[in-house]
């Protein structure tokens, strides 16, 4: 009699190969800590989000006061809300640092890992935007109005899409219900994408500061790098606790402490600080459709990096001109963030347009400069 084979998955072995005995380049530095810090941020956001969802009502008439009730009447509800709100900012700080490290040390040469990471960034940005709308404050409402109206620029189907997204002809209760449902679901999708990201990473191996082949110079992940990650965890938790207990509102928009009023438009509509650079790029294009394309390409252009880079060495340590260009690029992003927080008026309009051109020129000039340097020293 035929008996089917039974396949068992040894979870302890998988965990051992993924965390304990994982071969890791011995030269990686503190810049590689942000990957594990992102995992901690994701778990924090998911747990606090589930707890907040137990008290949330997706009704424009009561949502704002319900959030006030959570903060003032539910035991430790204030801490729960501050942790979730400030955790989003901490999440993006770690994510931008993680992406910047990948750009500097050319981690994008591991194309599958890099592209999956870019998709995670996009999903995280979408999740954060949806979550920003849910408190139903003044800036939440008008931010949702401005951003969702961008969908109407899609040729032929834009109006139908925006009506589906709103659940009607204006932002109202169906919109809030849709946004809450998507905001609750997306973190679990992000978790699955993170697992795929780690699978690709463990398949290709980690990059290293020298950008050289490190197959002969590897150490087990534990205890050499778990100790480094533990220090990073402790430092981040101290900063996070200090932020939540001493300055819980420093990263929040004051207008969002006012209930949403469709009849009163804020003087200056702007998103959260971690979207300001992209918002400045959107505003710098006079054409609405062109602005949407520029906004999308500001993130999607990261997926082109594995195809454009043909340099001999991965690390920018061997390319002084590229180092200068990279730090100029970082300064440019900071300037775009500053411009995005200001009204659309002179001189911020022309400054935003110049900075937008410099932003996209980095992705074109960076690989060309690397190839020119290879030929020069070769």
TrEMBL record:
Record domain Cytochrome b/b6 N-terminal region profile: where: 1-210
Tagged with keyword Transmembrane helix: yes
InterPro entries xref list: Cyt_b/b6_C, Cyt_b/b6_C_sf, Cyt_b/b6_N, Cytb/b6-like_sf, Cytochrome_b, Cytochrome_b_C_euk/bac, Cytochrome_b_N_euk/bac, Di-haem_cyt_TM
Cofactors, names only: heme; heme b
Cytochrome b/b6 C-terminal region profile domain sequence ranges: 211-378
Chain sites annotated for binding heme b b566: 98, 197
Cofactor note: Binds 2 heme groups non-covalently.
Recorded topology in the membrane: Multi-pass membrane protein
Primary residence: mitochondrion
Residues annotated for heme b b562 binding in this entry: 84, 183
UniProt entry keywords in alphabetical sequence: Electron transport, Heme, Iron, Membrane, Metal-binding, Mitochondrion, Mitochondrion inner membrane, Respiratory chain, Transmembrane, Transmembrane helix, Transport, Ubiquinone
Record GO biological process: mitochondrial electron transport, ubiquinol to cytochrome c
Residue intervals passing through the bilayer: 37-58, 78-99, 111-133, 179-201, 221-243, 289-308, 324-341, 348-365
Regions annotated as coiled coil: none
Subunit structure and binding partners: The main subunits of complex b-c1 are: cytochrome b, cytochrome c1 and the Rieske protein.
Family classification: Belongs to the cytochrome b family.
The protein's role, per its UniProt record: Component of the ubiquinol-cytochrome c reductase complex (complex III or cytochrome b-c1 complex) that is part of the mitochondrial respiratory chain. The b-c1 complex mediates electron transfer from ubiquinol to cytochrome c. Contributes to the generation of a proton gradient across the mitochondrial membrane that is then used for ATP synthesis.
Name the UniProt record assigns to this protein: Cytochrome b
Native species: Hemiodoecus leai
């Amino acid at each position: 009699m035929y008996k089917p084979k039974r396949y068992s998955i040894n979870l302890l072995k998988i965990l051992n190969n993924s965390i304990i005995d994982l071969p890791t380049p011995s030269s990686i530095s503190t810049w590689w800590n942000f990957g594990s810090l992102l995992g901690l941020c994701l778990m924090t956001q998911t747990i606090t989000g589930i707890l907040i969802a137990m008290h949330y009502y997706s009704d424009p008439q009561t949502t704002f006061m319900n959030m006030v009730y959570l903060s003032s009447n539910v035991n430790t509800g204030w801490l729960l809300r501050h942790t979730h709100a400030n955790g989003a900012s901490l999440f993006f700080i770690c994510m931008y640092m993680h992406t910047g490290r990948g750009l500097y040390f050319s981690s994008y040469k591991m194309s599958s890992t890099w592209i999956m990471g870019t998709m995670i960034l996009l999903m995280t940005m979408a999740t954060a935007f949806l979550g920003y709308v849910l408190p139903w404050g003044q800036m939440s409402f008008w931010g949702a109005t401005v951003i969702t109206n961008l969908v109407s620029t899609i040729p032929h189907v834009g109006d139908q899409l925006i009506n589906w997204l709103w659940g009607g002809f204006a932002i109202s209760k169906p919109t809030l219900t849709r946004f809450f449902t998507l905001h609750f679901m997306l973190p679990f999708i992000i978790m699955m994408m993170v697992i795929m990201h780690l699978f690709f990473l463990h398949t290709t191996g980690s990059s290293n500061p020298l950008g050289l082949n490190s197959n002969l110079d590897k150490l087990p992940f534990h205890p050499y790098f778990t100790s480094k990650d533990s220090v990073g965890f402790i430092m981040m938790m101290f900063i996070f606790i200090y932020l939540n207990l001493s300055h819980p509102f420093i990263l929040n928009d004051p207008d969002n402490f006012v209930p949403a009023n469709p009849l009163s438009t804020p003087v200056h509509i702007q998103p959260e600080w971690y979207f300001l650079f992209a918002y400045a790029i959107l505003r710098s294009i006079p054409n609405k459709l062109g602005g949407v394309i520029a906004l999308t390409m500001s993130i999607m252009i990261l997926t082109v990096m594995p195809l454009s880079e043909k340099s001999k060495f991965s690390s920018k340590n061997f390319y002084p001109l590229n180092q200068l260009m990279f730090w100029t690029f970082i300064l440019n992003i900071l300037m775009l963030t500053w411009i995005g927080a200001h009204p659309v008026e002179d001189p911020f309009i022309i400054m935003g347009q110049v900075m937008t051109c410099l932003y996209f020129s980095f992705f074109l000039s960076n690989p060309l400069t690397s190839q020119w340097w290879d030929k020069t020293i070769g």
